[in-house]
Amino acid sequence: MSKLILRLYADRLSAGAFSTELAPTTRTIYVADGTAVIRGAGQTASIAANGAWQGPAAISITAGPAGARLLRWELSKGEPQLLGGTALTSEMTLAGEPQIKPGIDYLMRCDRVDFPPRGVAYTHTHQGSGIRCLQSGRIRIDTLGHDFWVEPQGAWFESGSDPVFAETWGDSPSHFIRVMILPRAIRGKSSIRYVHAEDQDKPKAQKYQVFVDEPIEL
What pLDDT tens digit does each residue of the chain (218 aa) get? Predict the structure, then answer.
């Protein structure tokens, strides 16, 4: 059986551009800039900047009058799906294999994580895997002996079970958008677990904005 793969795509549509239809799959679309209209399964959704849409249906996308820059996550066993159409560009940014356990129901969560200048996320794990994409600032990720900086539009995969320490740099705030595949039992609840007991009660720099947190069928 083919493995489920979580992929992140970067799609840019010029003003009024529209795509060909994307095949059905489990997906979340975040509008980073501009506006987008998503049509599928007989429904239409208009999404403004810093908003997200989620669903399994076949869809097409139309950009608003200022165009649209999209982050698109898809979870599937199929081949990658670049966005087709004219006056647009589409590329796959990153792919990773999420940790899926038999007998567990899952959800797909999309949220935004904001840090102040020089913010820190103490060493932690999550209850599921996901892909993050930095939108502003600069962030250092330290995990499993690997230490690297991520610049805006850069993406990274976290297994969830591997401990991660993160810190932002500079005199301006930082934020990233992420999609995680999490157990359905923690819907509406935080997925983070701090590795060191002494970090549990420390003040936390990061702030969260949840866009979608919906059950999915695997």
Answer: 469 999 999 999 999 999 999 999 999 999 999 999 999 999 999 999 999 999 999 999 999 999 999 999 999 999 999 999 999 999 999 999 999 999 999 999 999 999 999 999 999 999 999 999 999 999 999 999 999 999 999 999 999 999 999 999 988 899 999 999 999 999 999 999 999 999 999 999 999 999 999 999 99
The CB density around residue 55, as the number of other CB atoms within 10 Å, is 20
Report the distance separating Cα 89 and Cα 11, nearest Å. Answer: 6
CATH superfamily of 106-216: Jelly Rolls (2.60.120.10)
| N-to-C CA span, the chain | 13
What predicted TM-score, i.e. pTM, was given to this entire model? 0.96
Tell me whether the CATH fold assigned to 5-78+90-96 matches the one assigned to 106-216: yes
In contact, 32 and 177? CB cutoff 8 Å = yes
Buried/exposed code over 176-198 (b: 16+ C-beta within 10 A; e: otherwise): bbbbbbbeeeeeeeebeebeeee
> Domain locations in the chain?
5-78+90-96, 106-216
36: closest CA among 10, 17, 8?
17
Q: How far apart are CA 106 and CA 102, in angstroms?
A: 10
Report the topology of domain 5-78+90-96: Jelly Rolls (2.60.120)
